[in-house]
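Quick one before lunch.
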Amino acid sequence: PDAIRLEAVAKQYPDGTTAVRALDLAVTAGEMVALVGPSGCGKTTTLKMINRLIEPSSGRILLDGEDVTRADATQLRRRIGYVIQSGGLFPHRTVLDNVGTVPSLLGWDKRRTRARATELLELVGLDPAVHGPRYPHQLSGGQRQRVGVARALAADPPVLLMDEPFGAVDPVVRDRLQVEFLRLQEQVGKTVVLVTHDIDEAVRLGDRIAVLSEGGVLEQYDTPAAVLGS
Ligand code: ADP
Ligand code: ADP
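Model of the adenosine-5'-diphosphate complex:
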């Protein structure tokens, strides 16, 4: 089965706003799909539903063929890593503790959690001895985003959901982070849904682009050949 599959998914918030309507999307294992579209078209809502932070009003979401509403929260954290804009780090926890959040929740012992967090900081290009004991406000924007990626990868989930992961840094840093993320993805090989409103980023990082409009998938392209028209 597909790694992620959304079938006629709709979401209406309690205040009556329809954020997503009749969304169909299938993501193959190991594929990176970029969800693009204007602000307010339902991208974040879609990621939150896949992650079960919110429930769809109707339709089905399947992970490896299994309905996510049947999976428990701990199991989902093991299977899905979530990267949000600006890292979304806990401000009162050190970088090392931020990266160890999910392993701790999963009951890993302290030593194993620390060893994993150290390894991940190195993987995303930070120095564990220097940056590990710092608090998020003591890092640059680019460094916080690296920590956000490290945290999402900590329990080695097969699926990564990324919400504007490189949005809040200046263009030069973003460029570097994108290149590094592509290199990292070659090593870790996750199934990725990347939300962005930056079409260049979508073309650069995605294997496929799904364009959202008013809560539904408008069109899909393979990258880069299909987009470049060759
Ligand atoms: P995007 O990520 O594409 O910018 P969102 O998924 O954040 O879009 O939002 C889709 C629509 O749902 C927007 O109109 C937004 O204002 C609305 N929305 C988002 N969250 C809520 C909420 N908690 N309650 C009501 N409406 C919301
Ligand atoms: P970037 O090029 O990634 O945006 P910055 O110019 O923001 O980097 O930061 C440069 C260096 O200064 C980084 O190594 C960062 O760790 C450090 N730094 C930034 N803000 C603080 C702070 N409030 N306290 C300590 N170090 C900081």
